[in-house]
Amino acid sequence: MGGYLVIITVSGIVAFGLVKGVKVFDAFLEGAREGLYTAAGIIPALTALTLCVSALRASGAVEALGQLVAPLIGMAHIPTETLPLMLIRPVSGSGALAVLQSIFSSCGPDSEAGRVASVMMGSTETTFYTITVYFGSVGIKKTGCTIPAALTADLTGMIIASLTVRLLMGN
User: Fold this and answer.
1) Is the pTM of this model over 0.85?
2) pLDDT digits (tens), the chain, 171 positions
3) Helices (H) and strands (E) in the chain, counts
4) What residues have CB less than 8 Å from 96, skipping those under 6 apart?
């Protein structure tokens, strides 16, 4: 069924372009060319971000920071098992998935920590990756208040994730 949906969608786009008098193939080639330029422009920033994430995880900085903020997490009634996820989620999506899997393995997906972690994954963003991609693709070097605002939104999402699970699931 999904294959038919793709064919119908692409055919509809081509038909619409032809009706509007657009040279569809030329427009496709121009879009692909711009996409390659954009990708080439953000590769250095993504490489730097990947290096930084790897260095933070390998150095033990994530664990050290986790131990530092653990008392605050406990006071907010957020399961301490989700702390590594809270630290890695804004930086790395694949790292966050690995941490989520670890939480599922150690606590179970239906545990309070598993539920809170699941909601956190759905209500937060890989902030630094997103900023790197979008700002890097248009050449913005000064992010202004974007990073503090985005990290505040992530923190709010994480706190509300725990509150929501407690209220809806009764943990």
Assistant:
1) no
2) 667 888 999 899 889 988 999 888 888 889 888 888 877 777 777 777 677 767 877 888 877 877 888 888 888 888 888 888 888 898 888 778 888 998 999 899 999 999 999 999 999 988 988 888 888 778 888 888 999 999 999 999 999 999 999 999 875
3) 8, 0
4) 85, 88, 89, 121, 126
